């Protein structure tokens, strides 16, 4: 990649971080960006005024506390040393503090600084007779000061939330990107598509049946809208297509009774991606008999726990439709079933002593079956040899799994991603292992915040691996800067933050959307030779894509991504 100009590097740094440490950007660098019209100073007068008021109230409260300390010490001097002092006047008791007691002088100073006027108190000798009244004034003033502190703190917090996303350059103040500065960033075209998609999905007053689905899984569906918009489709047309498909399928009990809601989303998205060129063909599956027949065929393949989870329809699409499956082609369906059963048998033999959940075992077998079909294997000796070699590569790659993945099955799914990149060959595993280790070091080191999930790291790995194979490599550091900029933009974007504010959102959804947007940015305007090969990702998502080499991998359970859960 060509080296970017210095001013663009400075602009990217401002767009990626909340606080820039001293020395990272000089005053001359900032002045240059201001002169180019890319950034502007963010004075924030209201915020500065509130911060000054808060500091003044804190100082006032400190003086009140110290004045109360003086009163407390003076009161202790009035107390007798022993109980006999009250019975024997003139013996063992205190007459009170001396006239030159420092607490008397300090208390008067605090009263003057706090501008508290107590009737009859003008000199040190007036303090002791009015000590109780002074304490009452201090207590009232202290309560009022705490109330003002709390109110100022709430107002300051609200002002910070309402402020436009800016960056604090320590020692230089706050700076904010201008519209020209935002347009100068490489991700600007993708962010524009995101704005259009957000407005279509969440900003329109005429919300269709799909609105509840967008609230349930905004990350995946917004990724779908941006992906289709990058191909030239209008987001409103895509949402309308989704609404029509949803309305038709909701009339079928086999679909309407599906739970969870994300299983419905996964099935509809798979149909839309399969029949993108001919969307009317998706309605061929909106047939009670056809769905019942497909489910009947899936029963011997799906473990009962997987079928009960509600994901049998998306998995049915993965078996019969992924990678050019033809609806109604009985011979092709039987061929896919026999191939899956053969892979399942060998995999079960090899992993019989491994603790792996039913859903993970099924997805791994499905991925290996499609990999074998892509290599033109049929049930027989050659297929058995390939599956054994592939499982050995998966087990070997799983040894490099991060320590926090937990159970063995999750580690095997992790290993399948890296084994896929190595062509399911143990001899070629070293390269993918080193590439993932570099990504993990950059995104999950001790000072890296926020912590990125392994699913997102694997999507980053798939994106960079595909770019490397296409001869357009992007460094991990450059990708990390892009990820930081887009994630900061999502955090501060009102529409995005509103979409990710519901209780249904799962941890990591926002990072998944940021990763998908990063992939779209890296692949946008990618110029490749005509003979460039197509490289699908480790899961089924790549098998629903048009077989175009310049398309980015997409992440999300509704797309068929080989996730870890």
List keywords for this structure.
mainly alpha, 565 residues, 4 strands, four-stranded mixed sheet
Describe this structure in words.
The two termini are 36 Å apart. This protein has helices at residues 6-16, 27-35, 45-78, 102-113, 131-162, 179-184, 188-203, 211-216, 218-230, 235-249, 253-256, 261-274, 288-298, 304-308, 312-320, 330-350, 358-374, 381-398, 408-421, 430-443, 454-469, 476-492, 494-499, 509-523; strands spanning 19-20, 39-41, 167-169, 173-177. The chain is an all-alpha fold and 565 residues long. 59% of the residues lie in helices and 2% in strands. A four-stranded mixed sheet has the order 1-3-4-2.
The total count of helices amounts to: 24
> How much β-strand is present in the residues?
under 5%
User: What best-fitting shape do the alpha-carbon axes yield?
Assistant: elongated
By DSSP, the count of extended strands is 4
Order of helices and strands: HEHEHHHEEHHHHHHHHHHHHHHHHHHH
Report the radius of gyration as a whole number of Å: 33 Å
Report the end-to-end length measured between terminal Cα atoms.
36 Å
Q: Could you give the order of strands across the largest sheet?
A: 1-3-4-2
Summarize the biggest pleated sheet. 4 strands, mixed
Average pLDDT metric? 86
**What fraction, in percent, of the residue positions are helical?**
55-70%
- Any low-confidence stretches, pLDDT <50, length ≥5? none
What class do helices, strands and sheet pairing give?
A: mainly alpha
């Amino acid at each position: 990649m060509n080296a970017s100009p210095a001013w663009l590097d400075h602009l990217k740094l401002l767009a990626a971080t909340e606080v820039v440490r001293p020395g990272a950007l000089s005053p001359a660098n900032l002045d240059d960006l201001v002169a180019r019209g890319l950034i502007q100073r963010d004075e924030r007068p209201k915020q500065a005024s509130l911060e000054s008021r808060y500091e003044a109230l804190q100082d006032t409260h400190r003086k009140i506390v110290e004045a109360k300390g003086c009163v407390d010490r003076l009161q202790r001097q009035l107390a007798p040393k022993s109980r006999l002092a009250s019975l024997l006047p003139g013996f063992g008791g205190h007459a009170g503090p001396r006239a030159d007691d420092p607490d008397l002088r300090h208390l008067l100073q605090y009263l003057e600084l706090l501008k508290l006027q107590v009737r009859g108190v003008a000199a040190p000798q007036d303090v002791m007779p009015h000590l109780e009244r002074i304490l009452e004034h201090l207590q009232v003033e202290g309560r009022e000061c705490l109330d003002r502190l709390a109110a100022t703190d709430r107002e300051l917090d609200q002002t910070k939330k309402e402020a436009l996303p800016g960056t604090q350059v320590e020692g230089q103040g706050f700076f904010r990107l201008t519209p020209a500065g935002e347009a100068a960033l490489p991700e600007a075209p993708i962010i524009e598509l995101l704005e259009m998609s957000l407005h279509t999905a969440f900003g329109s007053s005429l919300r269709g049946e799909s609105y509840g689905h967008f609230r349930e899984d905004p990350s995946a569906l917004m990724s779908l809208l941006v992906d289709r918009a990058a191909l030239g489709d209008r987001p409103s047309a895509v949402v309308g297509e989704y609404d029509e498909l949803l309305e038709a399928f909701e009339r079928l009990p086999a679909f309407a009774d599906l739970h969870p809601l994300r299983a419905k989303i996964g099935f509809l998205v798979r149909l839309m991606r399969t029949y993108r060129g001919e969307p009317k063909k998706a309605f061929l599956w909106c047939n009670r008999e056809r769905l019942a027949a497909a489910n009947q065929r899936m029963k011997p393949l799906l473990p009962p726990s997987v079928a009960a989870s509600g994901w049998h329809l998306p998995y049915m699409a993965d078996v019969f439709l992924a990678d050019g499956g033809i609806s109604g082609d009985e011979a092709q369906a039987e061929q896919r079933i026999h191939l899956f059963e053969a892979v399942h048998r060998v995999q079960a033999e090899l992993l019989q002593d491994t603790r792996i959940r039913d859903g993970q075992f099924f997805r791994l077998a499905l991925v290996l079956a499609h990999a074998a079909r892509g290599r033109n294997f049929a049930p027989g000796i050659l297929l058995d040899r390939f599956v054994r070699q592939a499982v050995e590569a998966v087990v070997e790659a799983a040894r490099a799994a991060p320590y926090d993945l937990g159970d063995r099955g999750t580690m095997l799914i992790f290993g399948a991603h890296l084994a896929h990149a190595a062509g399911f060959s143990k001899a070629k595993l070293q390269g993918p292992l080193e590439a993932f280790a570099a990504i993990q070091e950059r995104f999950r080191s001790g000072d890296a915040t926020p912590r990125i999930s392994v699913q997102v790291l694997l999507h980053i790995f798939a994106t960079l691996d595909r770019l490397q194979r296409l001869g357009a490599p992007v460094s991990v550091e450059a990708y990390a800067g892009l990820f930081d900029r887009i994630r900061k933009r999502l955090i501060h974007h009102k529409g995005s933050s509103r979409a990710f504010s519901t209780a249904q959102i799962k941890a990591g959804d926002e990072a998944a959307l940021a990763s998908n947007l990063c992939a779209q940015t890296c692949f946008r305007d990618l110029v490749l030779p005509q003979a460039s090969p197509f490289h699908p990702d480790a899961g089924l998502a790549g098998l629903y894509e048009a077989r175009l080499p310049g398309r980015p991998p997409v992440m999300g359970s509704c797309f068929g991504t080989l996730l870890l859960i």
